[in-house]
Amino acid sequence: MAHILPHWTWPDRVGEVTPVHVFSAADEAELFVNGESAGRQQREESNYRFRWDDVTYAPGELRVVAYKDGEEWATETVKTAGAAAALTATPDRDTLAADGQDLSFVTVAVVDADGNPVPEASDAVTFSVRGPADIVATDNGDPADFVEFPSLTRDAFSGLALAVVRTRAGAAGEIIVSAAAEGLEGARVTLLAS
């Protein structure tokens, strides 16, 4: 596993130094900025972060290749996002027990026309559910958001929002969770309660 921070959508930082961190258990990692190597580093003992502190921001792509025992082990790519165009929805699992207690956490991301996450998006996302389940909470991770958890509308925070879906006791069947935001293509996922 290799994870790049930060995102790579900084329209106000073109030409400015923007440090890049990669978190990985790899032995070595090489960072590429728009296809050019920014250098290969070895992991220090007990440190799972690789740092490139002198990267100059330019829109495009960051890619890391992580190595273990000299072999390519993991990669990750992040790209500069365009304008928000759509929502995507991803459940943490899609098969649930129809016991009235089982939950699925459905993460909604705001993405551009190419499917890249839009990290600064704050669109209002409205959730709905059809079938033998209820949306019992929504959230977004924003510590300054005081909207009540049962609200079916939640502003995205850092481009993300979450719906918590609970099955109904003794009610099996298909559950369709939908997410909509003004001006964006909506998203939906299908879950199964059995």
UniProtKB/TrEMBL annotation:
Using the record's annotation, list all stretches that form the DUF4982 domain. 15-74
| GO molecular function annotation | hydrolase activity, acting on glycosyl bonds
One Pfam family of this chain: DUF4982
Domain Glycoside hydrolase family: from-to ranges: 87-190
Q: Which domain of life is it from?
A: Eukaryota
Keywords linked to the UniProt accession: Glycosidase, Hydrolase
Q: State the similarity comment.
A: Belongs to the glycosyl hydrolase 2 family.
Q: What is this protein called?
A: Putative glycoside hydrolase family 2 protein
| The organism of origin for this protein | Eutypa lata (strain UCR-EL1) (Grapevine dieback disease fungus)
Upper classification of the source organism reads: Eukaryota, Fungi, Dikarya, Ascomycota, Pezizomycotina
